[in-house]
Amino acid sequence: MANTIKYEELKALLANNKDLILIDVRSEEEVDRGRIPGSIHIPFQTVDAALRMEPDDFKAKYGVGKPATGSELVFYCQAGRRGEMATRRAREQGHINARNYAGAYSEWSRRQKN
């Protein structure tokens, strides 16, 4: 599986894959200006710690079940770099199905307006 995902692929996954976990790694200020629907916010600096949390603690903090190592994860940020680094960190922790939405929120918000 490639480490990146394109806009069209993400749109299809969001429509058809109820098990997809979409993680927004941007800052609180960036998220306040808009987000991809259905995403959970885990700031980039806390991704490592979040993925190491106990399942009950993760659910209490983020409101969803902690992703299993085989879960389909897609990370995104504003321009792609933090999402790429978060994807790499998740893969290092055994999340082999982690990918980065390289177009990031900047592409998503631009294409959603058209």
From TrEMBL:
Residues 16-113 form the Rhodanese domain. It comes from the Eukaryota. Pfam families: Rhodanese. This is Rhodanese domain-containing protein. The lineage of its organism: Eukaryota, Metazoa, Chordata, Craniata, Vertebrata.
